Amino acid sequence: MSILIHSGTKVLCQGITGDAGSFHARQMLEYGTRLVAGVTPGKGGTRFEDKVPVFDSVKEAVRETGANASVIFVPAPFAADAIREGADAGLELVICITEGIPVSDMIKVKRFLEGYPVRLIGPNCPGLITPGECKIGIMPGYIHKAGKVGVVSRSGTLTYEAVWQLTSRGIGQSTCVGIGGDPVPGSGFTDILDLFNRDPRTETVVLIGEIGGEEEERAADYIQREMIKPVVAFVAGLTAPEGRRMGHAGAIISAGSGKAEDKIKKLEAAGVTVSRSPADIGETVSDVLKKVRVP
Amino acid sequence: MKIHEYQAKEIFTRYGIPVPKNKMVESAEAIDGALREIGGDTFVVKAQIHAGGRGKAGGVRVAQGASEAARIAREMLGAKLVTRQSGPQGRVVRKISLDAAVAIDREYYLAVTLDRAKARGVILSSQAGGMDIEEVAHTQPEKINKTYFDLVFGLASYQAREVALGLGKDPAFVKAVTQIVQKLTEIFVRLDASLVEINPLVLTRDGAVTAIDAKIDFEDNGLYRHPEVGALRDPLEEDPREVEAKKYNLNYVGLDGSVGCMVNGAGLAMATMDVIMLAGGMPANFLDVGGGAKVDQVKAAFKIILSDERVKSILVNIFGGIMKCDVVADGIIQAARDVQLRVPLVVRLEGTNVEKGKELLRQSGIRITPAEGLSQAASLAVQLAGKS
Lengths: 295, 388
Hints:
- The complex is a heterodimer of chains A (about 300) and B (about 400).
- In chain A, strand 5, helix 3 (about 75-90) and strand 6 (about 95) form a beta-alpha-beta unit.
- Chain A has two domains: about 10-120, Rossmann fold (3-Layer(aba) Sandwich); about 140-295, Succinyl-CoA synthetase domains (Rossmann fold), CATH 3.40.50.
- With about 300 residues, chain A is an alpha/beta fold.
- Chain A has helices at about 20-30, 60-65, 75-90, 105-115, 155-170, 190-200, 215-225, 260-270, 280-295, and strands at about 10-15, 35-40, 45-50, 50-55, 70, 95, 120, 125-130, 135, 145-155, 175-180, 205-210, 230-235, 275.
- Chain B is an alpha+beta fold and about 400 residues long.
- Chain B folds into three domains: about 1-20 and about 105-235, D-amino Acid Aminotransferase, Chain A, domain 1 (2-Layer Sandwich); about 20-100, ATP-grasp fold, A domain (Dna Ligase, domain 1); about 240-385, Succinyl-CoA synthetase domains (Rossmann fold, 3-Layer(aba) Sandwich), CATH 3.40.50.261.
- Chain B is built from 13 helices and 18 strands.
- In chain B, strand 16 (about 315-320), helix 11 (about 325-340) and strand 17 (about 345-350) form a beta-alpha-beta unit.
- In chain B, helix 2 (about 30-40) crosses helix 3 and helix 9 (about 265-280) crosses helix 13 (about 375-385).
- At the A-B interface, helix 4 and helix 5 of A face helix 4, helix 9 and helix 13 of B.
């Protein structure tokens, strides 16, 4: 088991003919993802890499191929529209990689999605992967290893760093989910923690947060209330100054709220083992796993 | 993106929010003419810099008569202003706004911003106007009213009335404030602002309601659809290193420490800053060189980091995923050669072809210390910063 995606997931790619879309579509195919369709308006009837059929609309692609998940690489001005198209076509899962979507667009999209049985991951995220089965996104596939640790993060490369530390220690992952670095994400930490909590394969969860917003605080509340599995966390940005945006649109301490130390305190109070150094995430998980297995 | 107060007041005027008569000047020669144009006998001279806390720092001064106003304005133009938000080095005042003074009866606070967690707009209003609102929010949160609104439906008229009724009961006052609340929200929604603030909004002795201060911050991601807003950018108010970084698609934020750093990815960049602190040093900057870490970007990044005199060592931390470590190493070596580094360079690579990458670094013949893990890399960089 895993969460959200597995070997049976049939993926379509919105924006497959663009630079980023075509590059990562090729990488996904190489990894073994069942990429069944591409969508680029005006390019319907062609084939990507001589095998993946391209359609003019998501509805058509779903009807013809039975795709149930989509990954979006279209530019920011059109990305909100692409998400709505995915939801309207009946997809269960939409992953938006695009960075730079105005927050007001995202708020409207979230309101729009309320009527649909769809889960949105991202935007401004690396995507998600169930190692050995299905990769939907831009992460390097080979650093992952199938196993029992769930990973959820607001960051890209920092997640690769953490995953690599796990894999190097022989610790595999059930599913790794990047929820993205925007102020209003489609899915929050709590949504993903809840899925891991119910997933029989996942034994432990690694949560990687950063400054800005209240995602980590809400995760701490959920963990205290509901979580039956151990959680290890790292929160980036102890040295980040107030009022400055640190790369991600959502990574900003404003009016004294969103500080890393406050998030760490809240997570620790909820029973989470917090790794103070990003270099020790793998080691911390390894220690926690030993405690879990030897009662 | 931040803009100046006088620019925010121009936008207010366009949307019908009353502001006192005002005029921006950039040169001493323009002062007298501007004062004549404004007229009256009491003026407020206001420094236009992108940092709050101007009032307490002497950047907002009341003058009786045109000659006193002109004298203060001349003093202020070109002077350095150090406020609680400007940093110890302060800001040079390049522009000032000359405003007609109003006779103040009462002061209020009014702002529209985004509540991330609720994914809704929120109107903040308070009778504690003119004060440091963050301080009020901290010590007397009950003095701030919050009214949430949905961005799809917009602000309902009853909500605008409720905000006004929370500030006063006089029918003329309520009518004026209701309109201002609606206009303020309209600016926030239409222009993709992240904050629209009036502090203070004042009731004058003759019963008028007017915004004697104005602040608008814009969301960077929304700028592409508002070129007229983008045109308001004042590059002189921004860190020149950040302006340069943007040209190369780099994300740079200058800090106070001595260990420069260059990292691929924003999260890993922040984590690298943290690990420098844990190793006993302080980071000189945040720098995200992007997923690809291309040679011209790496070169520009080195130059920007080195333009900070305080930098005593540089830590490069790259996680080579799809971009393999040997390719990244090659880029770093090329860039380091071209730039001629004046400080020691510690490089930590991890990911695909990491051994090949390290070998290239060792054989490069330049002063590069390849590091094993992230902790070791940070310790080395901190040590080297202390030595040089």
